Amino acid sequence: MAPVKINEGIYWVGEVDWDIRDFHGLTTSVGSTYNSYLVVDEKTALIDAVSKGGSTMLLRRISEIIDPSSIDYVISNHAEPDHSGALNSVMEAAPGARLLASKNGIRRLDDMYHAGWEMKAVDDGEEIFLGRKSLQFHNAPLLHWPETMFTYCPEARTIFSCDLFGAHIAGTSRFVDRLGAAYVLQHTRKYYAFLMASFRTSVLSAMKKMEPLEIDIIAPSHGPVWRDDLSPLLDSYEEWANLNLLPKATIVYGTMWGGTGSMVDAVADGLKEGGLDCTAWNVVSTDPSDIIADLFDSSLVLIASPTFVSGIFPPVEAFIPFLRVPRDKSKKVACFGSYGWGGGAVRRLVEILKAEGYDVMDEQLAQQFFPGNEELKECYEFGRGAAEWALSTGK
Fold first, then answer.
1. 16 and 103 together in one domain
2. In this predicted model, what pLDDT tens digit does every residue of 214-258 receive, in sequence order?
């Protein structure tokens, strides 16, 4: 794949990872990109340096535009290896280049690579001049490491936003308008929920910092470039970061012989009657990152488990730590499930979730074996009561 012109004198020269299917526990069903951008002027700057495995392709793409040895600056917005893994190859190919990063970034790169590169820490708001273009550096800590920053080119009205606004999408199309905003936002939402939601205050701070900047193009470190109409992205991010919980419920459940699974539909009907739309996810057959992408803005989460050796069904118990990913204790939680000759799962769920700091509904529902008509009515009433409780206590 050839380099792609993003703007006058600005090129995408990054890496497409067609094969990756897991990124820190986030399922990447359509792969990803590790974006690197070359800014060519009287002086030349390379922004980020892809993964170690992509170094050959990165240098090949750069070589189609300029001799890599002529690079003057290499800018590290983020020290994580998917952004910096190729730095050894890049700095070897560009021996006269100076590596720029935030103060924290310099420390982390030194700790990670011990390479002795010529590095300079840039201050928040510092600017370098390439000729007709300049680059400004803006600290954006905890998006999502402490050293992250974004780089802005005012003359091109382009921001290189690092992991902010990213999405894991592989492909030959480099622009959102060629893929469709709805498709890209689906993957952006999942990326945000799993990697950015826990840092929402930092997201809001970064977006506030961006407000005075004139931006026509957002070039993130993963996924396609946004241009022209940025409002779908910015409006979505603002809504997500402000944690506007929606009138919906998410059921997360496991089932062994179908008892708990049979309860789910009736509970969902009750939730709908009580005022909450509902989705349900079986933890055995669904990736946790897909569940998190759905529940991070839900007002109510219901955890359902059959009893297994007097406790929680292991796949359900294994999911509970994923609830910590969005770092949101404002949503309400309710628990239900089934058991055979002896119970314990629902009681244990309540204990664990209360210990985690969640507001757990006092009423629980545990039914023996498989629900009949009367038991299904109980499930329906439980769902309706849970919705009414969540809506009344969430005000």
1. yes
2. 999 999 999 999 998 999 999 999 999 998 899 999 999 999 999
β-pairing, 332-339 with 298-304?
parallel
Total tally of structural domains belonging to the chain? 2
User: Do residues 206 and 276 both lie within one domain?
Assistant: no
Buried b (16+ CB within 10 A) or exposed e, 152-170: bbeebebbbbbbbbbbbbb
Token readout for 51 is: 């993964």
How far is residue 182's CA from residue 161's CA, in Å, rounded to a whole number?
20
Question: 262 and 171 share a domain?
Answer: no
Token duo for residue 124: 């928040």
Q: Kindly state whether residue 265 falls inside one of the protein's structural domains.
A: yes
Q: Which residues are catalytic?
A: 24, 78, 80, 82, 144, 163, 191, 222
Note whether 204 and 296 are same-domain residues: no
Bond preceding residue 144 cis, omega within 30 of 0: yes
Same domain, 14 and 30: yes
The answer to whether 250 and 301 have CB atoms below 8 angstroms apart is yes
Spatial CA neighbour of 319 closest among 330, 333, 309: 333
Query: Do both 230 and 267 map to the same domain?
Result: no
Whether the Cβ atoms of residue 57 and residue 89 lie closer than 8 Å to each other = no
291 in the same domain as 205: no
Tens of pLDDT, residue by residue over 297-347, are: 999 999 999 999 999 999 999 999 999 888 888 899 999 999 998 889 999
Q: How far apart are CA 104 and CA 122, in angstroms?
A: 10
